[in-house]
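Box S2. Input/output pair 1.
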Amino acid sequence: MIGGTMISARRWTLALGTSVAALATASASPAWAQCAPDPTIANVTTECSGTDTDGVHITTHDSTVHLATSSKIIGAGGPAILVDIEGNSIANTLRLATIIIDGQVDGGNSSGIFVLSGTWPTEGYDFYGTQTDITVAAGAAVAGRELLWPGAN
Protein backbone atom coordinates (compact mmCIF):
# COMPACT_ATOMS: atom_id res chain seq x y z
CA MET A 1 0.00 0.00 0.00
CA ILE A 2 2.78 2.41 0.87
CA GLY A 3 4.73 1.48 -2.30
CA GLY A 4 1.59 2.05 -4.41
CA THR A 5 1.08 5.47 -2.82
CA MET A 6 4.68 6.43 -3.54
CA ILE A 7 4.35 5.48 -7.24
CA SER A 8 1.08 7.39 -7.48
CA ALA A 9 2.72 10.48 -5.96
CA ARG A 10 5.60 10.22 -8.46
CA ARG A 11 3.13 10.06 -11.35
CA TRP A 12 1.34 13.19 -10.08
CA THR A 13 4.67 14.99 -9.68
CA LEU A 14 5.67 14.05 -13.23
CA ALA A 15 2.28 15.07 -14.62
CA LEU A 16 2.28 18.42 -12.77
CA GLY A 17 5.88 19.10 -13.76
CA THR A 18 5.07 18.42 -17.40
CA SER A 19 1.99 20.69 -17.25
CA VAL A 20 3.99 23.53 -15.69
CA ALA A 21 6.67 23.16 -18.40
CA ALA A 22 4.03 23.22 -21.15
CA LEU A 23 2.40 26.30 -19.62
CA ALA A 24 5.75 28.10 -19.40
CA THR A 25 6.51 27.30 -23.04
CA ALA A 26 3.10 28.49 -24.22
CA SER A 27 3.32 31.75 -22.30
CA ALA A 28 6.78 32.48 -23.77
CA SER A 29 5.46 32.47 -27.35
CA PRO A 30 4.89 35.88 -29.02
CA ALA A 31 1.51 37.55 -28.58
CA TRP A 32 -0.65 38.18 -31.63
CA ALA A 33 -2.51 41.15 -30.25
CA GLN A 34 -5.52 42.62 -31.98
CA CYS A 35 -6.89 46.11 -32.06
CA ALA A 36 -9.41 46.63 -29.29
CA PRO A 37 -12.16 47.58 -29.44
CA ASP A 38 -12.83 46.64 -33.08
CA PRO A 39 -15.18 47.81 -34.52
CA THR A 40 -14.66 51.15 -32.83
CA ILE A 41 -16.75 52.77 -30.10
CA ALA A 42 -17.60 56.49 -30.17
CA ASN A 43 -15.32 58.70 -28.03
CA VAL A 44 -13.00 55.75 -27.29
CA THR A 45 -9.45 55.13 -28.55
CA THR A 46 -8.87 51.76 -30.20
CA GLU A 47 -5.36 50.66 -29.27
CA CYS A 48 -3.46 48.35 -31.62
CA SER A 49 -0.37 46.43 -30.58
CA GLY A 50 1.29 43.36 -32.03
CA THR A 51 -0.23 42.20 -35.32
CA ASP A 52 -3.88 42.54 -36.33
CA THR A 53 -4.52 40.31 -39.36
CA ASP A 54 -8.17 41.12 -40.09
CA GLY A 55 -8.00 44.91 -40.39
CA VAL A 56 -9.75 47.63 -38.41
CA HIS A 57 -13.25 48.98 -39.13
CA ILE A 58 -14.02 52.52 -37.92
CA THR A 59 -17.80 52.77 -37.71
CA THR A 60 -18.47 55.45 -35.09
CA HIS A 61 -18.16 59.25 -34.97
CA ASP A 62 -15.31 60.74 -32.97
CA SER A 63 -13.31 57.50 -32.88
CA THR A 64 -9.53 57.31 -32.66
CA VAL A 65 -7.33 54.39 -33.76
CA HIS A 66 -3.75 54.33 -32.48
CA LEU A 67 -1.28 51.85 -33.99
CA ALA A 68 1.71 51.47 -31.64
CA THR A 69 5.35 51.37 -32.76
CA SER A 70 6.46 47.90 -34.00
CA SER A 71 2.80 46.95 -34.58
CA LYS A 72 1.11 46.05 -37.83
CA ILE A 73 -2.43 46.08 -39.23
CA ILE A 74 -2.99 43.81 -42.24
CA GLY A 75 -6.16 43.81 -44.33
CA ALA A 76 -7.72 40.36 -44.82
CA GLY A 77 -9.13 40.55 -48.34
CA GLY A 78 -9.95 44.24 -47.89
CA PRO A 79 -8.46 47.49 -46.69
CA ALA A 80 -6.24 47.37 -43.61
CA ILE A 81 -8.19 50.31 -42.15
CA LEU A 82 -11.75 50.99 -43.35
CA VAL A 83 -13.55 54.19 -42.33
CA ASP A 84 -17.32 53.89 -42.84
CA ILE A 85 -19.30 56.01 -40.37
CA GLU A 86 -23.08 56.01 -40.77
CA GLY A 87 -24.75 59.39 -41.04
CA ASN A 88 -27.55 60.61 -38.80
CA SER A 89 -30.37 62.51 -40.50
CA ILE A 90 -31.51 64.05 -37.19
CA ALA A 91 -28.12 65.62 -36.41
CA ASN A 92 -26.71 66.60 -39.80
CA THR A 93 -23.12 67.07 -38.65
CA LEU A 94 -19.59 66.20 -39.65
CA ARG A 95 -18.49 62.64 -38.88
CA LEU A 96 -14.91 62.52 -37.62
CA ALA A 97 -12.29 59.76 -37.29
CA THR A 98 -8.66 60.07 -36.20
CA ILE A 99 -5.94 57.59 -37.17
CA ILE A 100 -2.48 57.77 -35.55
CA ILE A 101 0.07 55.45 -37.15
CA ASP A 102 3.32 54.74 -35.36
CA GLY A 103 3.66 51.23 -36.87
CA GLN A 104 2.92 49.57 -40.22
CA VAL A 105 -0.35 49.42 -42.20
CA ASP A 106 -0.48 46.92 -45.08
CA GLY A 107 -3.53 46.59 -47.29
CA GLY A 108 -1.84 44.04 -49.59
CA ASN A 109 -3.88 43.96 -52.81
CA SER A 110 -6.37 46.40 -51.33
CA SER A 111 -6.04 49.90 -49.87
CA GLY A 112 -3.93 50.63 -46.83
CA ILE A 113 -6.61 53.10 -45.66
CA PHE A 114 -10.03 53.35 -47.33
CA VAL A 115 -12.35 56.24 -46.35
CA LEU A 116 -16.00 56.03 -47.37
CA SER A 117 -18.38 58.97 -47.15
CA GLY A 118 -20.60 56.86 -44.89
CA THR A 119 -24.06 55.45 -45.48
CA TRP A 120 -26.92 57.89 -45.22
CA PRO A 121 -30.62 57.44 -44.45
CA THR A 122 -32.87 57.95 -47.47
CA GLU A 123 -34.89 60.75 -45.84
CA GLY A 124 -32.03 63.26 -45.70
CA TYR A 125 -28.95 64.51 -47.46
CA ASP A 126 -25.31 64.49 -46.43
CA PHE A 127 -23.88 68.00 -46.37
CA TYR A 128 -20.79 67.30 -44.23
CA GLY A 129 -19.56 63.78 -45.05
CA THR A 130 -16.74 62.08 -43.18
CA GLN A 131 -13.48 63.76 -42.20
CA THR A 132 -10.51 61.57 -41.30
CA ASP A 133 -7.41 63.05 -39.69
CA ILE A 134 -4.43 60.78 -40.39
CA THR A 135 -1.01 61.13 -38.76
CA VAL A 136 1.85 58.91 -39.94
CA ALA A 137 4.91 59.18 -37.70
CA ALA A 138 8.51 59.15 -38.95
CA GLY A 139 9.52 55.53 -39.54
CA ALA A 140 5.90 54.36 -39.84
CA ALA A 141 4.38 53.27 -43.17
CA VAL A 142 1.11 52.77 -45.05
CA ALA A 143 1.19 50.31 -47.96
CA GLY A 144 -1.32 48.66 -50.29
CA ARG A 145 -2.60 48.77 -53.85
CA GLU A 146 -3.70 52.31 -53.08
CA LEU A 147 -2.15 53.83 -49.99
CA LEU A 148 -5.13 56.03 -49.23
CA TRP A 149 -8.37 55.90 -51.16
CA PRO A 150 -11.31 58.22 -50.58
CA GLY A 151 -14.36 56.30 -51.73
CA ALA A 152 -18.02 57.13 -52.06
CA ASN A 153 -21.15 55.17 -51.22
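Box S3. Input/output pair 2.
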Amino acid sequence: MTTGIKNTNDIIIFISEIAKAFKEANRDGSINLLDTLKAIQVLPSLAAAIKDADEIKDELMDLNGEEKDLLLMGLKKAIYDLVDAFT
Protein backbone atom coordinates (compact mmCIF):
# COMPACT_ATOMS: atom_id res chain seq x y z
CA MET A 1 0.00 0.00 0.00
CA THR A 2 1.37 3.42 -0.91
CA THR A 3 1.02 6.30 1.50
CA GLY A 4 1.02 8.98 -1.20
CA ILE A 5 3.00 12.21 -1.21
CA LYS A 6 0.48 14.82 -0.10
CA ASN A 7 2.30 15.90 3.05
CA THR A 8 5.70 15.93 1.38
CA ASN A 9 4.27 17.94 -1.48
CA ASP A 10 2.71 20.40 0.99
CA ILE A 11 6.21 21.16 2.35
CA ILE A 12 7.52 21.74 -1.17
CA ILE A 13 4.60 24.04 -1.97
CA PHE A 14 5.25 26.01 1.24
CA ILE A 15 8.92 26.50 0.30
CA SER A 16 7.89 27.78 -3.12
CA GLU A 17 5.20 30.07 -1.69
CA ILE A 18 7.51 31.61 0.93
CA ALA A 19 10.14 32.26 -1.76
CA LYS A 20 7.57 33.98 -3.99
CA ALA A 21 6.28 36.05 -1.06
CA PHE A 22 9.83 37.17 -0.22
CA LYS A 23 10.48 38.12 -3.84
CA GLU A 24 7.26 40.14 -3.97
CA ALA A 25 7.98 41.83 -0.64
CA ASN A 26 11.51 42.72 -1.69
CA ARG A 27 10.53 43.93 -5.18
CA ASP A 28 11.43 47.54 -4.34
CA GLY A 29 14.71 46.55 -2.67
CA SER A 30 13.54 46.76 0.92
CA ILE A 31 11.04 45.05 3.17
CA ASN A 32 8.71 47.13 5.31
CA LEU A 33 5.66 46.55 7.50
CA LEU A 34 3.26 46.50 4.56
CA ASP A 35 5.42 43.86 2.89
CA THR A 36 5.24 41.65 5.96
CA LEU A 37 1.46 41.79 5.76
CA LYS A 38 1.74 40.32 2.25
CA ALA A 39 3.54 37.37 3.80
CA ILE A 40 0.32 36.42 5.55
CA GLN A 41 -0.72 34.94 2.22
CA VAL A 42 1.59 31.98 2.88
CA LEU A 43 -0.14 31.02 6.14
CA PRO A 44 -2.52 28.53 4.48
CA SER A 45 0.41 26.72 2.86
CA LEU A 46 2.27 26.77 6.19
CA ALA A 47 -0.72 25.24 7.95
CA ALA A 48 -0.94 22.51 5.30
CA ALA A 49 2.80 21.90 5.48
CA ILE A 50 2.92 21.32 9.23
CA LYS A 51 -0.48 19.68 9.74
CA ASP A 52 0.68 16.10 9.09
CA ALA A 53 4.42 16.64 8.76
CA ASP A 54 5.04 13.60 10.96
CA GLU A 55 3.84 11.43 8.04
CA ILE A 56 6.52 12.67 5.62
CA LYS A 57 9.09 10.06 6.64
CA ASP A 58 6.63 7.26 5.84
CA GLU A 59 5.75 8.90 2.53
CA LEU A 60 9.39 9.16 1.52
CA MET A 61 10.08 5.55 2.49
CA ASP A 62 7.20 4.37 0.27
CA LEU A 63 7.73 6.31 -2.97
CA ASN A 64 6.91 4.73 -6.30
CA GLY A 65 8.37 5.93 -9.59
CA GLU A 66 5.54 8.32 -10.42
CA GLU A 67 5.66 9.89 -6.95
CA LYS A 68 9.43 10.34 -7.22
CA ASP A 69 9.00 12.10 -10.55
CA LEU A 70 6.27 14.38 -9.19
CA LEU A 71 8.32 15.30 -6.12
CA LEU A 72 11.40 15.93 -8.24
CA MET A 73 9.45 18.31 -10.47
CA GLY A 74 8.07 20.08 -7.41
CA LEU A 75 11.52 20.35 -5.83
CA LYS A 76 12.99 21.77 -9.02
CA LYS A 77 10.28 24.45 -9.06
CA ALA A 78 10.74 25.25 -5.36
CA ILE A 79 14.52 25.52 -5.77
CA TYR A 80 14.05 27.76 -8.82
CA ASP A 81 11.67 29.97 -6.82
CA LEU A 82 14.20 30.19 -3.96
CA VAL A 83 17.07 31.09 -6.25
CA ASP A 84 14.88 33.57 -8.12
CA ALA A 85 13.78 35.21 -4.87
CA PHE A 86 17.31 35.74 -3.59
CA THR A 87 19.08 36.77 -6.79
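Caption for Box S3: The helical segments are 6-25, 33-38, 43-51, 56-61, 65-86. Residues 65-86 form the longest helix (22 residues).
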